[in-house]
Every structure is written in structure tokens, then in C-alpha cells.
User: What shape does this take?
Amino acid sequence: MKKYDVIVVGGGPIGSCTARKISKKGHTVAILEKNKKTGQNLKCAGLVTQRVIDLADSSSKKFIQNEIKGANIHSPSKNILKIGGNKTHAIVINRIKFDRELAKEAEKNNVDILLGNNVKKIDKIKNTVSIKTSNRKSYSCKILIGADGPHSITRKHFNLPEPKEFLTGVGAEVTNCCVDPDFVEIFVGANIAPGFFAWIIPTNEDGTKARIGLCTSRESLEPSTYFFKHFMKSKRTESFLKNARVTRKIGGTIPLGILKKTYDDNVLIVGDAASQIKPTSGGGLYPGLTSADYCSYVVDQALKKYNYSANFLKNYHKLWTKHIGKEISKAMAFRSIYRRLTDDQFDKYILKFQDPKILDIINKYGDIDFPSKLSGPILKKSPSLLKLGPSVIKNKRLF
Assistant: This one.
């Protein structure tokens, strides 16, 4: 049985980053990755802010594909709200290259990446966690970190809380399309992506390649693949995708909602496993990488103090929820409102937001990592917006 101070289950960007940070502090660390290659499955739209690039702290920037200056939001009745446009607001990354670069950085910092090791059994004996994998290998560690995705084996084994909601996402990378390389196209409406939205993200500076997709709530009457098929052939996307050719398919599950507990004796969970996701966009890299910082800090302290108890490791939960927990909770409240909006209400909001004064506020305060920053200034400028939505939106305590 190979022994480590820390074992991270999952070799995605959050797992790799967490492992690297802990190893740099002088501890022995291994990653157990079920796939035979890192970055093997593309499940992400790959639209991030500069904060993600900074948190990744990679010596390479080969994964950067394009810069985005704004977005066109398409209402069900084909009205368009154009936001941004004056500066770079987001960066498009190649997630496969991004994942592999962070794995390389981890290996450079003495992390053992053990590929093809799907966790099959976890046991905790006294103050040690033992693991058996699909290739009949056995490992042990003092602290186990679950970075193993939305259906985390680690989370389930230690009976940690489940996410409040799951979204189903489907999409593709396409070529031979025709999009403005500076703008993301966003589409809302019950016939496009019930419970969420659809997107077209330009992935090169010519606007000939894009990453497209949508998410739907699990209570949707039709599967997400049904809506994606219609999205590809819709008259609303015809000008962008008429001659588009699919080069790679994308799909995955997105967990939503703050977990009340992300720790136990000898164990922590991080990233999608901990439902550290932005409910308004489905993005997990910024909250996951932010939490990786706190995870590595608390694990380092625990190893130095020889204290792997839940009572000590709960400091991780306190730290990450203090930083981003309030934002995620607010976003879940906004999501509750968003899911109740009718197509008619979407149209009314998009027309109302075209007011130059409101557009100025959106362009000034808009931040895909912290969307709640918009609510106060917008409602102060236009309190009548409360009248447009469902009854729940009239509860100003949400804002």
C-alpha cells in the first residue's frame, strides 16, 4: 500500500490546483484520476474572467483562445439586449488544454498523478483513509480530498449533503459558423432552454469557430438533447449556425446550491463535488479555484498540527463560504426568480434594460463572477422592474 499525506480524487483543474498547492508546502500528494488521460472529457463552455487565469497560476497561456467584450441577449420575441463592448470582460479558454496544463504544473511540483485509477472502495481506520481502485491498487493517506465531480464518490461515501439541484448540459464545438468574435450570443425562453439559457461563444478571432450549448432543469418535459437539436436548427440561430459543422460534442451535469457541510474527519470536498458553482451561469472554475486556495491552506495547517478531525477541517468550510458563500446563496435566490419568468416577462425585461441609464449600470457593475453587484444599483435606478416579474421578485430582501 502506497502511503501519502494527501490523496486527491479527481485530476480536473480544481483537483490539480489543490494538489499542487499542498505539495508545494512540502507534503506528499497523489491524484487518483479515473481516466487514462487528464483533460479527456470536455464538459465546460470555457468562458471565464481574468480572475480564473490568475488563480490557475500557470506558466503557460496556450489554453487562451479568444477575448470577449460583451454579449447579445436574445429574448423569445427576438429583441436583443447588447451589453459591454468597450473592453475585455471575459476570456475563452480551451478546457482540455487548460486541464492538462494544470496537471503538468502539479507534476512539476512533485504530485504523483495516477491515471486509470477509478476509486472503488474507501475505508477509514483510526486516523487513516485507505483506498482501493479499479486496477487493484491500494493507497492510504491522512487526508482525502474529493475533487471528483458532481456525482462525487467521496461525498457519497462520507454522507455529506447532496446539491439542491442538478442541471443537464449539452453542446458542441463547431466550425464554419458566422459570429462576431467579440460577443457571446445568449438565448432565453421556454422553447430554447427551459430553466436556464443557451449560448454561442466564439472561440477564435475570426468568428468562424464557436462553442455552443444549453442547460435545462431536470424537471423539463423534454431532455436537453431535444432542445439542443432544435437550437441548432432554429431560425433564431440560423444567421450564426446555418453552415456550422460539429467537430466535438460536449455534455455534463452541473450541481447547484450551497452544501451545509464540505468536510468530515480526514476528508474535504472541493469544486463540483462541493457544488461550488455559480448558479446564474453554471461556471465552476472561479469558485472552485478560490476554494482550492482555502482547502490547501487548511490541509497544510492540519498536517503540521497532526489534527485531521472534522472539528479542525471545518475551518475550510468557514473560509470558502465566507468568501463566496453569500454570493452563491444570492445567486440561488435569483435563480428561483429566473425559473419562474415567462417568455412575456423575459421580453419585458430585455426591453426595459435597453434604457441607456440601466445599460450604463450593467456595463459598469456587470461581473459574471459576482452578478449580485448589479441588483442594488439597477433597482435604485429603476424600482419599477420589481413589477415586471413574478410575485416572489417583489420580496426586496432578496436584493
